Amino acid sequence: MTATAPREGQLWSRCAGCATLLYRKRLHRNLDVCPECGTHARLGAPDRLRQLVDSGSFTTLPDRPAEVDPIGFVDVLPYPHRLTAARAGTGLAEAVLCGTATIGRHPCALAVMDFRFLGGSLGSAVGELITRAAERALADRVSLVLVTASGGARMQEGALSLMQMATVSQAVAALREAGLLTVSVLTDPTYGGVAASFATNTDVVIAESGARMGFAGPRVIRQVTGRALPDGFQTADFLLRHGQVDMVVPRRALRSRLTALLAAARAARRPEPARRRVEQVAGAARSEIDVPAVPPPGPTTAAPPAACASAAVPSGPTTADAGRPADNAVSDAWATVRAARHPGRPTTLDYLESAFDDFVELHGDRLGGDCPAVVGGLARLAGHPVMVIGHQKGHTTAELVARNFGMASPAGHRKALRLMRLAARLGLPVVTLVDTPGADPGVAAEQQGQAAAIAENILALTMLPTPVVAVITGEGGSGGALALAVADRVLMLRHAVYSVISPEGCAAILWPDRGAAPQAARALRLTAPDLCRLGVVDEVVPEPEPAAQDDPEGAGRLLRAALLANLPPLLEVTPATLVRRRRQRFRRFGAAGVRAGAR
Questions:
Q1: Nearest Cα to 208, choosing from 357, 41, 444?
Q2: In this structure, are strands 96-103 and 59-60 parallel, antiparallel, or unpaired?
Q3: Neighbours of 459 (CB within 10 A)
Q4: Who contacts 301 (Cβ-Cβ below 8 Å, separation ≥6)?
Q5: Which of 147, 189, 441, 535 could, after both became Cys, cross-link 185 (CB 3.0–4.6 A)?
């Protein structure tokens, strides 16, 4: 376990690794690394910056994002109270410090996360700040350095925190397209939505000695698998052995290693006259699709989402009494969760029979696996060829076990990625059907790079030059769902759910016991009407009464009608405009664009 750096003013500190009592000044001179055993204490963002950047060179970004409480979340405390306590305890406005600096005299933009602030969780303000740092790097044509320390996406902001994974990823994609270096430094710990997005989809991934990184945390994996974890599981050395990081670097060498990378990136840039010619050509191309040469560093100007297309969907209760939802609101949200999980609910293969024609399944990730939790292939929709990719659960216990309950392994995500790229090459639109409690949380999945596989899917979808329509048909669970749901249009069946975490998981963390799952379900705003009001979902697809599982054929007809209404207009849009609009869609989920529509 990595220790936490001692508080300012303490004279002595006990190492969490070897229990040696250390003189604080000696420990500080050694960069908060135990001189006896090498244990790296956790650092706050200000200390990390002091160690990495040239003295006096760091300048914070000028704008602060608006404070948000997008879903009015309350557990035993209102979310704003938790934010106030975190600010008082850390002296920071949010869980990340962003700005520009030089490292070894090489300019860069930086975003440094701080685990002390609500576990370094990724919320709308954090996503906005990191995105602005990336946009500043693009404007200045310098490299971007990300230092991660996070437990994952912030539960108190519901699905909007999940959207930050895509928002930041597309900012990284823009830097990749511009030929600018991106580097992430994994520190202890880096988990969940941060690990499955910008922590692992940069050009170079460095792990600090002693860091741990993974998609699912060790406690979750032990609970799911019932097995003891291998020695050194998810540690920096484990990640290096399994090909998930470029290097493991002790803290004392981090600055010099970053200096070398930044120097190489700077030296490799085009000579100035050639670069100007490239920019002139790129500027002309951008003008044809009305894209600004450099995204503005301030708040996004993307238009807010239109109202939900399904006007017949009842809105239900939308307010809470002093933060406590009415009993019927709680039961409605929990009833929707149970409906979404019903074993009789139509699966992707069922919809391929009822809503599509002539399905030809394609198998394999071409790297050694064929995950049964993801199915995909070519089909026809009203005569038009499409690529359909979806999670597959099953109905019987045997089917559910064989399909891993729809929880995709890295091979499943890589199979989906292969099919998406094939669709783009063939000029076919992509339809994804999302129904998963989350990505596979097993030991083997972590060994095979689950976080990076999800991150690569999200990054690829932000750049995919073909129409993408995603439909949440049952459970939309966390990053495993988002890996198929970065789309031009996101539809959601009336009795589906889409959430950053399961209600049971949320209750176990924020409430005294798991019995509060119904209350957590309401607080997370995970139903289709809630997410339509938040702008996460574009349209609610009606279901046969009382639910899709009672009339699977009827559910297929309604899904087909919704796809035929949403897909054809996208086929008329040029690829460049599709990508631009898709990025605008997810850019608005930063703090500058969050709406409090579900309160």
A1: 41
A2: antiparallel
A3: 24
A4: none
A5: 147
